[in-house]
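Assemble and predict.
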Amino acid sequence: MVRPLLSFGAYPVTIDIQSLYKRFGTQPVLRGVDLEIGDGELVALLGASGSGKTTLLRILAGLEYPDGGDVVVDGESWIAKPTQARKVGFVFQHYALFGHLTVAENIAFGLRVRDKKQRPDEATIQAKIKELLDLIQLSALGGRYPAQLSGGQRQRVALARALAIEPAVLLLDEPFGALDAGVRKDLRHWLRDLHKRLGMTTVFVTHDQEEALELADRVVILNEGRIEQIGTPEEVYDHPATPYVLRFLGGANELPGRLRAGRIEVEGLDTTAIERIAAGDGAASLFVRPHDVDALPADDGSASIRSVFITGAQAHVELTLAGGKQLAAELRRDVARARGLKAGQRVRLKAMHGRLFTAPHAAAASAPTASDAEDIACIARP
Amino acid sequence: MSISATLDQTQPPRPAVKSRARRRVLPGFGLTMGATLFYLALIVLLPVAALILKTADGGFLRFWQVISSPRAIAAFEVTIGAALIATAFNAIYGLLMAWVLARYRFPGRRILDALIDLPFALPTAVAGIALTALYAGNGWFGHILEPAGVKVVYTIVGVAVAMAFTSVPFVVRTVQPVIEELKAETEEAAATLGASDWQIFTRVIYPAIFPAHLAGCAMSFARSMGEFGAVIFIAGNLPFQTEIAPLLIFIRLEEYDYPAASAIAVVLLAVAFTLLLTTNAIQAWRLKRVVKD
């Protein structure tokens, strides 16, 4: 397909973030962030509120200035460069459309404010409006005002407006945060297709791990102003570097236990499937995701079922271990039914998969905040 | 006959219990609406109607004679001219003031914020005397301005100064809350799209506050036109030069010439009413397009 007007990815854009520091008053929000973003990459900044992810994005856009560190784009420092000169496409969570302008005028805004020498002629502007309206599938609504559109439509207009200036980098701040679940999913798929087509360097901020894992080429997990882990969605999910990442991605049962000869022992839980690690004996924590817990009915079982509830194809089983520790398991619904799992029943538990952190490491990681817990509770991975 | 019969058939069946169908969730509609309409009729509509009736007493010819007399025309010119100058000044200064109060945090902001309302609270005669004292030839401002050739007291400039003083809160107080409500994100979005500070103001901020600004200016103008107490002290009230229309109404009343007084009053009323109606129409037209969400 020939796309004469939208010329993204025409020049490579790499971003090199070097030890960024930022504080608001006495509150540090970024405490030494280093990150390299490659050309055409789609990177997610993932973290709880207060992790500094939005501040980092705003520094990239020039809407915030760091106290220390540098942002180098294609070898040029951006710190002294004003927002206007950076050519970033920025999309806000709450759209930030211009209410007094039509959809078409919103899209054309970035072209019309250019000084005369660089401003395209009216025909070019109109052609571009039309093309972008087609791109966001709102061709018929160019004459509407933002107040007459739905949330999903507004966010697409915001994206078209950002794309109109042919930005070097696309930055999205919780772009789906204000939308309904269904719309969010649609728009997510649409954005991923769009990124594939346009291939521009894109950074987006989210607190929704599902969104980050689904969309991004690489996920950057931020916690209290520091990067906890950088990696592909598979890497961060399968090999979380810290307990924080593990808690944040997918959620997990955190079980205190003891290491003996490299093997973890947790009271009331069969841990023979867990790999041994090279570490001295002592206290350790075992993290097991709910879908890695297997529950078999057994009269002499060391755990008892508190409740079972079904969501779609999944059965969520809440258990109490012999030591009184609470634990969640997730089984396929038909499996749970075949085994006759129900409240009050005794079961034998086995951890099929898990990740070990020795005590000092586990203790050093901060407990997730209330909002993290909420995030963890609302996701259920198949 | 047959037509009405057909129409009746198309109407939906009436609910069995009529009062239940009409019941409202929010209580008190009848009482509050009734009190409001009664009050409006008593305090606003009745005097206005009396004014127009009084004018009609003299007949149209008399009305025309009064309002087209050179002295009345001069008074209208002074009043409307000075009100325009005052409103132009308030439009800019009031906007600036509202901007500073809404946007920045600085020591003394609350005091400044309270001071804005002073012209509302101050008896206008006090304001008039104070302004006259300041701008008179031996006053603080006057002894600097008059040697420089700028005469304020007993000129239309003085009239405008008094009008501006008493009506500036209208502009500030209508615009300020709108500026406070503006979202920083919208301006940031404009900046990322390459708009300069000036472009952000003219293309994003001002269009958003324009309806409120217009309303504030219209009220400021209407108030200026009717200002009496503050103006008569500083104006000197020379017929054909600095005599304002409200004063002329007062003079005619003193002469027991009620039809003449009410004729001039009706003209002021018509100007104010037309102005408010026009600005309301412009606002409604804009709001219809830009619905707040």
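The first helix of chain B runs from residue 2 to 10.
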